[in-house]
Amino acid sequence: MSNSFTRFTGTMAPLPIQNIDTDQIIPASYLKVTDRSGLASGLFSRWRYRDGDPEGQPIADFVLNRAEHGEARILLAGDNFGCGSSREHAPWALVGYGFRAVISTSFADIFRSNALKNGLLVVPVTEEISAALFDAVAADPATEVTIDLEAQTLSLPGGGETNFEVDPFARRCLLDGTDQFGYLLNQAAAIQTFEAANPSRLDTRSA
Amino acid sequence: MSRPQTLFEKIWRRHVVAPEGVAAEAEGLPATLYVDLHLVHEVTSPQAFTALAERGLPVRRPDLTLATMDHSTPTDPSIDTARLRVIDPEGSAQLDHLQANCERHGIPLYAMGDERRGIVHVIGPELGATQPGMTVVCGDSHTSTHGAVGALAFGIGTSEVGHVLATQCLLQHRPKTYEIRVDGRLQEGVVAKDIILAVIARLGIGGGTGHVFEYTGEAIRALDMEGRMTVCNMSIEGGARAGLIAPDEVTFSYLEGRAMAPAGDAWETALDDWRSLPTDEGASYDKTTTLDGSALEPMVTYGTNPGMAIPIAGAVPEDDAIEPEKRASFRKALDYMALEPGQQLQGKPIDVVFVGSCTNSRYSDLVAAANVLRGRKVADGLRVLIVPGSDAVKRQAERDGLAQVFVDAGAEWREAGCSMCLAMNGDQLAPGQYAVSTSNRNFEGRQGAGGRTFLASPLTAAASAITGRVTDVREVLS
Predict the structure, then answer these.
(1) Which of A86, A158, A175, B168 has a CA that sits 20 to 30 A from residue B157's CA?
(2) Model confidence pTM above 0.95
(3) Residue A188: its chain B contacts at CB < 8 A?
(4) End-to-end CA distance of chain B
(5) Cβ-based burial of B408 (10 A; exposed 0-12, middle 13-18, buried ≥19)
């Protein structure tokens, strides 16, 4: 999958709940995988299926099970999205399901960092804009917004747009379709110099 | 004289391989930060090792990397490796993956049966691997625990686990600092867990986002090392990347003589260095908040995040005490917990008591619980799990008679592991059950689908074990 992300237009799935933790995004029972696949069915599984079982009956009124939001590729969520566990399985599950971006008034630090490394854009907005977006989706589930990463703008349903903040380095990587690993590997010489100047006191093989 | 610095700044500056970009052409570039110790466990590492394999990269510093098995390991003493393959083939395969990856790269691994094995955040300090002034990372949010020794320690994602395995470095933007000052002396029955639950209740679970906490003040200084670990452990539950406590004589006497701590001349050199770490007089934090430790009471959570905590004698808040935009989430939490606004928690019948997790499974936690349970019986029909944080803690508790106290009281004495904290190893609540738990998260389903968690201290947990109800330990002790 290419991580390239420039401009994206789509509908939103509203989840007006604050402090959605990564245990809700993907429960621990899904963390026994040794690759990144197969997590989409576990996404929000405890809210999405009866008894949390993807083989079981979908819970009809959960947003991802409602026909009008079936095509949504942007998640509109309450404040402090992604708190709790550092599990990168959370963005893997969101991306695996098909989400391209999450809009919220704030994001937990580790989730934000993990999401941006997986091509999942996090879009922070003010409380006013968040409320306006929830209202717009409630009034018309087909409401579309456009996220422009190059311009760092989010189009608003009533017209106009708002700027949003994004980590400039992560933005560059997303726009170029490069990853942060390569950038770090290119610093081998500086790392070697640092190690020579700062010998470690520790040897984990010594116990 | 140079500008006064905080403990955080001193550690950060020592580890910068390449600074954050401030020049026009590099604006917004993160710093490259060197990692002194990388802790690894089975759940968040397999995909990182795969990333290295795909690029044909070695592990740069296996001598600064340490792996253990904790999350998926069973704590039921009757389940051995062979039996685990049958009852949990996926978890078992994940353990095999870790073993193979560690063998391939020469990383020391404490596998099932190894007497050094335990919860990653228990064994790090226990072995003296985590030391003042270090940077410590792990693919686990509770890495903040290691800040108790004065190390800058934080959780990372699996992509970053790969970065650190390959380069021993991380790309990081410098967080802000937040002083959490807890003055005064704690009352009888009030312990480290109550401090941190009160802090999170005050700040909210997103209150520390973008910050590193430094805990200061008389109540923090008076804690022993294990109490400090409990406090730092839950920094992430306040949204902070890390929590720090300045190293002092308590820290040094804890570390001296531990397996991986410096010894001989190296110990003296290290001490000189460590004494220079505490925040300088006159240094400033981006934010500060102060709590009166002497006014704190035993705390218990009522909701579905760790910030939803109240003094044990208190009541669940009424709707009108909650900001209007937060009311829907508040009601959702109460619906899940099957509680009402204004309800007292004290006296609420429970089904399970769990003493364990990287928050409260150390020797002193078990001593605290045993002191309450000694000579008493757990309530009829109540399930009580006592899960030591490491094999070393387990052996010490067995040697010193603590294990017998638990068994005599009617509790289950288990093998070391994460156990019911995250319910991916066979230990879990049944739907609808209530637990008083010494762990760190009361999220919906965290301890088992449909399970309902009241987070509390080991003292509160032990007192509740006797009565089968949420109980104020001060009533049991008096």
Answers:
(1) A175
(2) yes
(3) 167
(4) 54
(5) middle
CB contact under 8 Å between A204 and B65, yes or no, is yes
Could you tell me if B36 and A204 are in contact, meaning their C-beta atoms sit under 8 angstroms apart? no
Q: Which residues of B4-17 are buried (b: 16+ CB within 10 A; e: fewer)?
A: ebbbbbbbbebbeb
How far apart are alpha carbons B299 and A55 in whole angstroms?
Answer: 39
The band of A3, judged by pLDDT with boundaries at 50, 70 and 90, is very low
Measured CA distances, B167 to A179, B162, B294 (Å): 15, 8, 46
Chain B neighbors of A93, CB-CB under 8 A = none
ipTM of this complex: 0.97
What is the torsional sign of CA B22, B23, B24, B25? negative
Token pair recorded at residue A185: 């590997």
The rounded distance, in Å, linking the Cα atoms of B317 and B333 is 12
Contact B305 A110 (CB under 8 A): no
Q: Fill in the amino acid letter for B275.
A: R
| pLDDT over 90 at B24, yes or no | no
**Residue B13 neighbours by CB under 8 Å, 6+ apart:** B5
Over residues B409-417, the mean pLDDT reads 98
Which pLDDT tens digit goes with each residue over A152-187?
Answer: 999 999 899 999 999 999 999 999 888 899 999 999
pLDDT of the residue at B1: 57
All residues at 6 or more sequence positions from A197 whose CB lies less than 8 Å from its CB, including other chains: none
Mutation for B interface: A126, A185, A204, A206, most B CBs within 10 A: A204
- CB count within 10 Å of CB B318 equals 10
